[in-house]
Each structure stands twice: as C-alpha cells, then as structure tokens.
Amino acid sequence: xxxxxxxxxxxxxxxxxxxxxxxxxxxxxxxxxxxxxxxxxxxxxxxxxxxxxxxxxxxxxxxxxxxxxxxxxxxxxxxxxxxxxxxxxxx
Length: 91
Known about the structure:
Blueprint lengths: L25 H16 L2 H16 L1 H4 L3 H18 L6
C-alpha cells in the first residue's frame, strides 16, 4: 500500500452542491461590495499615521530597542505597512 503522498491516483474530494431556498438580492450585495471597496480605497489617514510611525521608529530605535512596548509598536507598524501595501485597488 502506497503512502498518500506517493500515490499518483488520488481523486479530488467530492463537491457537494445544493439548491438555495433563500432569495439573494444581487443589487444589494453589489452596492455593499462597492461600498466596501470605496471605504478601503479612502484610507489616507492610515498612510499619514504610518509615515509618522516610521519616523518615530527610526528616531527612537537606539533608545528603546529593548523595551517590550517598543517592540510591540514596531510589530504593529510592520503589520500595518504590509496591510497598506496589499490594499485592493492599488494594482
């Protein structure tokens, strides 16, 4: 018997489908999605805050590098920067 990772004849899992009994209003869903995209595109305060945080981190890195709160602040800045870089609509 072959191990699962060596077996070349593995079939994909079954796909279960069902008929939905709920009525979905596509126009409401479309407007909601458009509102979400518009909200995500209007995040200039986050960019300004990120610029200020970057300057603070650069200026006080030598003084507070061993402080736990400073390290958490730095981690928060890194996560925020990754979020701002990966925003939808910036492609």
